Amino acid sequence: MNLYFRLIAQRFSLRSLPQQHATESSRQCFRVWPSDAAFSIDHLTNSRVYSFVDLMRIRWLQQVGWYRVMKQHKILGVISAQQTSFYGMIPLLTRFEVETKLVYWDEKYAYFENRFTRKGKLCIMQLARIAFVDLRSKKPVRLDAMLDELELDVDPIKLPKHIASWQASLSHRY
Question: Residue 13 in 3-state DSSP?
C-alpha cells in the first residue's frame, strides 16, 4: 500500500521536475519504512528494490520527456531482463538515494543502471534491459526514433564492459 502513496506523491511532483538530457542521471531520496522491510524487519527487502526502480524509471522518463512521447504514440516500456547485485544492507528507517541512468542502447533495447546508495556507499546495483513497444503494431520502437522525436542530439554511447558481459550472458539459451 505504501508504494501507492509514493506513486501518487511522485505523480504530483513530476510536473515540477527540471527537464534533463537523456544521458543524465535522475536521483531521488527515499526512506525505508516498516512496509518496505524484510520479514526480520531490519532492512529493505529485496523484492521492494524493483518497485523503487519502477518509480525511478517513471521519474527519468518524465524528466527526459519520453513519457510524453510514449503516451502520445501509445508506446509501452517492457522489461526484457533484470540483474541485481546486493553489496550492503539498507537498514530500517534509513535514508537512501536511488540514481537511474540510461547507460546504453542498441536497435532494440535500452539499458538502464540503477544504483542504491546510503551515505555515499553503493548498497545495490540493478541493471534493466527494456524494449519500447508500439501498442498498435506490437513491434519494438527504435530508440533513435524516440530521440529524434524529442529533437535530442545524442551521440551514441560506447558499449560499457559490464553491459557487454551481461548481453553475452543473456544470449545463452538453456
Answer: helix
